[in-house]
Amino acid sequence: MPSGLRAGQLPGRLGLRRTGQKTGVPGERFVLAGVVKHGGIAMAAQVAQHELILSRRMARLGTETAFEVLSKAKALERKGRNIVHLEIGEPDFSTPPHIVEAAVDALRGGWTHYGPSAGLPELRDAIANYVSRTRGVVVQPDEVVVVPGGKPIMFYAMLALVDEGDEVIYPNPGFPIYESMIRYAGGTPVPIPLREERDFAMDVDEMASLITPSTKLIILNSPQNPTGGVLARADIERAAAAIGDRNILVLTDEIYSRLQFEGKPFSIMSVPGMKERTILLDGFSKTYAMTGWRIGYGVMRADLAAQITRLMTNSNSCTASFTQRAALAALNGDQSAVDTMRLEFERRSRAFVAGLNRIRGFSARMPKGAFYVFANITGTGWASKPLADALLEEAGVAALSGTAFGTYGEGYLRFSVANSMENLMEALARIDAWVGAHV
Ligand SMILES: Cc1ncc(COP(=O)(O)O)c(C=O)c1O
Question: Is the pLDDT reported for residue 416 higher than 50?
Answer without folding.
Answer: yes
